[in-house]
Write a structure and sequence with these properties.
With 62 residues, the protein is mainly alpha-helical. Helices cover 81% and strands 0% of the residues.
Length: 62
């Protein structure tokens, strides 16, 4: 991405973020909720990686 394109994109992202932050209808989540959600996603990802690795090993055993 050219720097001028990036600058336009970045400024739009900031503008949207400020607009959303100022919107009284925006639903906020707590830091604890976010950390909990991230931990759950991490567990699922690690399990998926483990299963894919096992499937890859099984494919090489043939």
């Amino acid at each position: 991405m050219k720097s001028s394109n990036y600058d336009v994109w970045f400024r739009e992202q900031v503008r949207q973020g400020l607009k959303e932050a100022d919107d009284p209808n925006t639903q906020w989540i707590s830091h604890e909720e976010m950390k909990s959600d991230q931990a759950k996603q991490r567990v699922k990802l690690v399990e998926r990686i483990r299963l894919e690795a096992e499937a890859g090993k099984a494919g090489h055993d043939e």
